[in-house]
Amino acid sequence: MEDSSSTPHEPRIVDDLSAFKLAFRRLAAGVSVVTARDPDGRPVGFTATSLASLAAVPPLATFNMARVSSAWRAIEQTDHVIIHILGARNAGVAAHMAADHDRRFDGDHWSPGPLGLPLLDDVPAWMLGRIVGRYPVHDNAVIVAQIEDGGLGAPDEALLYHERTFLRPGDPA
């Protein structure tokens, strides 16, 4: 059955996975990086577009991740993470932290921060979070962290991820 609402320029949604992927590519999301140390003390981290505030009292944040991720072992076994809010000037770091997991901490874009956790340089904001919940859902997990500390860097325009590209916001709607 042909979908009369689609045009020749739009992808046709043919199944649940396509519907999910195509729709969420059109949802702009803020970009963050979550860092931790694995049980052997090595820094780990990943770029996330799922960061959300859960509550102000107590201050809780959530992020999602795949349990097959290279960082899962660390997140599963650690008590603390640093959540970095990225700005437009951090687009290169966002891409770097989403690339080859063995090379994410090559370079001088980070230093040891609170509790020895990897702290990215020159980010608009960061928060130290104590993990208070890990909720597996299929091959993924929702992680809840209670914020215990944080800091602000220089202000910046937002960094968004939309249609598989890092962007800065355009004109107001």
From TrEMBL:
Keywords on record: Oxidoreductase
SMART domains: Flavin_Reduct (SM00903)
GO terms of biological process kind: pyrimidine nucleobase catabolic process
GO molecular function: FMN binding; riboflavin reductase (NADPH) activity
Domain of life: Bacteria
Domain Flavin reductase like per the UniProt entry, residue ranges: 24-168
Any matching Pfam family: Flavin_Reduct
Descriptive protein name: Flavin reductase
Organism in which the protein naturally occurs: Protaetiibacter intestinalis
Higher taxonomy: Bacteria, Bacillati, Actinomycetota, Actinomycetes, Micrococcales
